[in-house]
Fold this protein.
Amino acid sequence: MLVFLLNSYLKVSSDFFNRNQVSFLSFGIYFTESISNRIYDRDEGEYHEEFVDEIICINADLVSDNTTQDGIRVINMFRFMRKQPFFDKLKNKNKLILWCDSGTHFKNKELMHYLFVELKAEGVRVEWNLFQDKHGLLKITIFKII
């Protein structure tokens, strides 16, 4: 799929225009993880353990043949992402900070219900932010989990 996208500008025949359309939803997931460092103290002659918070980033692009721009599609993609193995690391996180563009697929009652009712029932607090319209930012949804 990526090769098709990168080379699509080279195709000017009906090959390009007759392909099935797809839509993307990009996620940037940032979270902190405590990393244990074992440090040797030469003066005392023994090891000490020190914990450092490290920022982890996971980028994921979901490709779908569903090209509708509605809240139900976004919710289904959120649910899909939360079922992925890397989300197991985030089970103990209880706050979700969400940044997204101002598209109607992000500003609707279905998504609000999912974020503020369903996730709240699971013990997840949500902070929802929107990028300014036509601000020039990439259309990307960013998760930050605390």
Remarks:
- Residues 109-121 form the longest helix (13 residues).
- Residues 24-145 form one domain.
- Helices lie at 2-7, 14-17, 71-82, 109-121.
- The longest strand covers residues 23-41.
